[in-house]
């Protein structure tokens, strides 16, 4: 029977496992084996199940209304695997429409539009170790090979009158998986594998969000493909579109005659791609989409999801001037939070061309919660630069420096995706300026710049072949071009570059600002760039790129450490059909202030060439910092000791001066006291004599007076 708790969560917009309730599930009911069909159709008057098992007559298979919330269910015995079915829905107006099951696990091959019953149970996975150890690769190399399984190789190409023939999931196990591993890629990113009606939409306009496309086989064959990829050490990422869905009549559009999955407001309902926007403000739609993502991670062991057209979820119709789509933003936050909690090793990647802030910051920290975001600005600026005539590149130097001004605001992936090589845009090689040889020289420098620049890497299939032919989903890649030396050597170069990236930890600690340092950033007159990539505790590699046609015999490059610098890749090497103007011997750095560094090397640079040097020496960023910190601490302590001694000496001198002054004062006082004492003594000695004389005078006075009186009497 149905899980009432999951149904409650479904209506609350919190259900991650709605596919365990809805769709077609094997069940034993009243002693009979059969299938239970369950569908959400809130506007329907009634719903029938019609299919191969009842000769498409649903009069005996009306579904029961399970709740007042618009859920219908029906158990039907003796349904066989691969039998086709649909839901016949009576709308509120009384019309009858046949719809594919939104939660079907398998579907008819186009142009058929029916759902197929398929039991997903029973596949025995062998990837337990991989699943236990996988993570989001923030501190690991992440080099993604984006592929369209149908056109990577074809058994038979399409023509205007006949269908082509695809390889199956199982057949591709022995082809694309070892190829991707041999070329140094860490992950396959597969363009949408959910069911879709039109080949030309490449899967980005889907009808079956839980249905593995029947173009390449059935679901268990896809499970075997993912299992084999994991066994080979290759992760699998899948593209999904949560923003919009196809308008085809058998799909989600006006599913029960009303707006179940889309906006009720017609002005917000339709996209510029002639598709229909999901109303991510509806709780049941949120549960549907979250469950779709959970489904592929749980049932197919997918390691990551790249979500297309995220900008059209952050803003109404992708236009920031119309305003933010708060309902969709809240949905994305809920999805990312739930996936991170339930599948901590699964990557959530946004293809977003806007400047919406904090797309890759956690929800808890105020962000949207994605793990990575495609750096569309870097892609556009870089390709614009390499399209330019080299004469004018000096005036657009900032196109290659601007990316590092904002790089640490998000966790970026650098993409050269399928979008850059279709619809008359030209291939990556064809975008380069110049003649054929100049194009090849520059495209090698372009990729060297890409793989040494901070950020994870993504390349669409065919980029590694240096194709001139644009991608066409009806044609296989141009494998025959590898018979030409330039293309074959470029393929070898691409493989070597990828392996250089994946084997040097200095290249993939991307989101640590300490891992990157500009060395030459302002030489616009010569269009030369140089920077260091570092593991603060270990390796250091120096990139030098010459992006115009000048040749340099001794170009001075400041370097971060004293020691030896050995060239480990040069785009002009003979093995890559270059002129072999290379630095064949390790270069010992010289002491001397150049720009902001204390050491430098002089290197040879061919026209349009780039090279990478590996540092050999005792220094690391942290050791230099430690030595500098220790030297500063020593200097600080010495300065403190010196200041302390000077202060002590000053205090001692002042104390001695004070003591001397005090002594001087004491002596002076003693002298003054002695002088005063002597004066007092002298004064005291003279006083008796004076007193005697006075006394004698006093004694004589009466006598004199007596004589005078006597005389007067006579």
Give a verbal description of the structure.
This protein has 714 residues and is of the alpha+beta class. Among the domains are: 1-125 and 192-233 and 241-303, Sandwich (Immunoglobulin-like), CATH 2.60.40; 516-620, Immunoglobulin-like. Helix content is 33%, strand content 22%. It is built from 17 helices and 32 strands. It has an 8-stranded parallel beta barrel. A 6-stranded antiparallel sheet has the order 24-25-26-32-28-29. A hairpin with a 2-residue loop joins strand 30 (590-594) and strand 31. Helix 1 (4-12) packs across helix 8 (283-299) and helix 15 packs parallel to helix 16. The longest helix is centred in the last third of the chain and has 93 residues, at 621-713. It is globular and about 150 Å long. It starts with a helix and ends with a helix. Mean pLDDT is 93; it is low at 708-714.
Search tags:
714 residues; alpha+beta; Immunoglobulin-like; 6-stranded antiparallel sheet; 17 helices; 32 strands; 22% strand; globular; disordered C terminus; carbohydrate metabolism; EC 2.4.1.18; GlgB
Task: Annotate the secondary structure layout.
Layout: H1 4-12, E1 23-29, E2 32-40, E3 46-51, E4 64-65, E5 71-77, E6 84-90, E7 96-99, E8 106-107, E9 115-116, H2 128-133, E10 143-147, H3 149-152, E11 154-156, E12 165-166, H4 169-173, H5 176-182, E13 187-190, E14 194-195, E15 208-212, H6 219-231, E16 235-240, E17 244-245, H7 266-269, E18 276-277, H8 283-299, E19 304-307, H9 311-314, H10 326-342, E20 347-350, E21 372-374, H11 376-387, H12 390-393, H13 403-406, E22 412-416, H14 428-431, H15 436-452, E23 456-460, H16 485-503, E24 516-520, E25 528-534, E26 540-546, E27 552-559, E28 564-570, E29 587-588, E30 590-594, E31 597-605, E32 610-616, H17 621-713
Parallel strand pairs: 10-13, 10-23, 13-16, 16-19, 19-20, 20-21, 21-22, 22-23
Antiparallel strand pairs: 1-2, 2-5, 3-6, 4-5, 6-7, 6-9, 8-9, 11-12, 14-15, 17-18, 24-25, 25-26, 26-32, 27-31, 28-29, 28-32, 30-31
Pathway: Glycan biosynthesis; glycogen biosynthesis
Domain Glycosyl hydrolase family 13 catalytic: 158-517
Biased composition (Basic and acidic residues): 635-681
């Amino acid at each position: 029977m149905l899980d009432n708790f999951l149904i409650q969560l479904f209506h609350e917009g919190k259900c991650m496992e709605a596919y365990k309730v809805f769709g077609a599930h094997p069940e034993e009911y009243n002693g009979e084996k059969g299938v239970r069909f369950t569908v959400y159709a809130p506007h329907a008057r009634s719903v029938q199940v019609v299919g191969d098992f009842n000769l498409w007559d649903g009069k005996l298979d009306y579904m029961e209304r399970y709740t007042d919330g618009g859920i219908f269910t029906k158990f039907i015995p003796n349904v066989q695997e691969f039998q086709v079915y649909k839901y016949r829905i009576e709308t509120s107006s009384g019309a009858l429409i046949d719809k594919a099951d939104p939660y079907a696990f398998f579907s008819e091959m186009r142009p058929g539009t029916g759902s197929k019953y398929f039991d997903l149970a029973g596949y025995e996975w062998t990837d337990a170790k991989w699943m236990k150890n996988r993570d989001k690769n923030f501190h690991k190399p992440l080099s993604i090979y984006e592929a369209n399984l149908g056109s990577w190789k074809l058994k038979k190409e399409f023509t205007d009158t006949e269908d082509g023939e695809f390889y199956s999931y199982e057949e591709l196990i022995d082809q694309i998986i070892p190829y991707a591993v041999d070329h140094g890629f860490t992950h396959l990113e597969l363009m949408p594998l959910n069911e879709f009606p039109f080949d030309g939409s490449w899967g980005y306009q889907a009808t079956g969000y839980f249905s593995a496309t029947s173009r390449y086989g059935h679901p268990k064959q896809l499970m075997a493909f993912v299992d084999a990829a994991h066994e080979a050490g290759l992760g699998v990422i899948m593209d999904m579109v949560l923003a919009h869905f196809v308008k085809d009549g058998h799909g989600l559009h006006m599913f029960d005659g009303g707006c179940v999955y889309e906006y009720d407001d017609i002005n917000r309902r339709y996209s510029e791609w002639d598709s229909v926007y999901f109303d991510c403000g509806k709780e049941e739609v949120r549960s549907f989409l979250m469950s779709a993502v959970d489904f592929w991670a749980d049932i197919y062991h997918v390691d990551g999801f790249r979500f297309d057209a995220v900008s059209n979820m952050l803003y109404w119709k992708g236009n920031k001037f119309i305003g933010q789509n708060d309902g969709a933003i809240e949905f994305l936050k809920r999805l990312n939070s739930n996936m991170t909690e339930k599948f901590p090793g699964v990557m959530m990647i946004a293809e977003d061309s806007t400047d919406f802030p904090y797309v890759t910051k956690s929800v808890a920290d105020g962000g949207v919660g994605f793990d990575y975001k495609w750096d569309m600005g870097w892609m556009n600026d870089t390709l614009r630069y390499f399209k330019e005539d080299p004469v004018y590149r000096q005036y657009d130097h900032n196109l290659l420096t601007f990316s590092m001004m904002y790089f640490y605001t998000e966790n970026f992936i650098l993409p050269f995706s399928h979008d850059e090589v279709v619809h008359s845009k030209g291939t990556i090689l064809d975008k380069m300026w110049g003649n054929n040889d100049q194009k090849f020289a520059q495209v090698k420098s372009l990729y060297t710049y890409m793989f040494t620049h901070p950020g994870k890497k993504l390349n669409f299939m065919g980029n590694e072949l240096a194709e001139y032919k644009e991608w066409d989903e009806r044609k296989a890649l141009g494998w025959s071009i590898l018979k030409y030396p330039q293309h074959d050597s470029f393929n070898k170069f691409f493989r070597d570059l990828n392996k250089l990236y994946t084997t040097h930890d200095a290249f993939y600690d991307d989101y640590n600002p300490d891992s990157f340092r500009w060395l030459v950033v302002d030489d616009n007159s010569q269009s030369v760039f140089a920077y260091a990539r570092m593991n603060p505790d270990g390796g250091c590699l120096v990139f030098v790129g010459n992006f115009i046609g000048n040749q340099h015999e001794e170009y001075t490059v400041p370097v971060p450490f004293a020691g030896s610098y050995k060239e480990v890749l040069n785009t002009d090497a003979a093995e890559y059909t270059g002129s072999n103007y290379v630095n064949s011997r390790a270069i010992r750095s010289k002491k001397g202030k150049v720009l902001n560094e204390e050491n430098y090397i002089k290197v040879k640079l061919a026209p349009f060439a780039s090279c990478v040097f590996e540092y050999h020496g005792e220094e690391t960023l942290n050791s230099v910092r430690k030595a500098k910190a220790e030297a500063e601490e020593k200097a600080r302590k010495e300065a403190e000791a010196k200041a302390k001694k000077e202060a002590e000496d000053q205090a001692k001198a002042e104390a001695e001066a004070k003591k001397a002054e005090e002594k001087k004062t004491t002596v002076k006082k003693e002298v003054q006291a002695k002088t005063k004492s002597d004066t007092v003594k002298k004064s005291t000695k003279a006083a008796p004599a004076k007193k005697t004389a006075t006394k004698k005078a006093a004694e004589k006075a009466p006598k004199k007076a007596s004589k005078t009186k006597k005389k007067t009497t006579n």
